[in-house]
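Can you please make up a whole protein chain along with its backbone structure tokens because I've never seen that pairing?
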Amino acid sequence: MSTPPAQPIPKNLREQMLKRISSMSEQDVAELYELTLLNEKLRVRREVSEQADNENAAGLWKNLPELVRAYRDSKKSV
């Protein structure tokens, strides 16, 4: 199954989106808000994952298991 080709992005996309949003029902605006939050969450997750991969490749996480173990041990003793 192939995905359909992406739609061309109009030059006045922001204007068109604002116009559409202003004519949406409150429920549709709320759903759009949730989708926007999901998109932001996915973007941040990709960025953090990429940073973590880079740090791991650079050896910065070599002693992570020991650090986690030490932290857990310190919390148990409190």
Notes: Helices lie at 13-22, 26-57, 64-76. The mean pLDDT is 92. DSSP finds three helices and no strands in the chain. The radius of gyration is 22 Å.
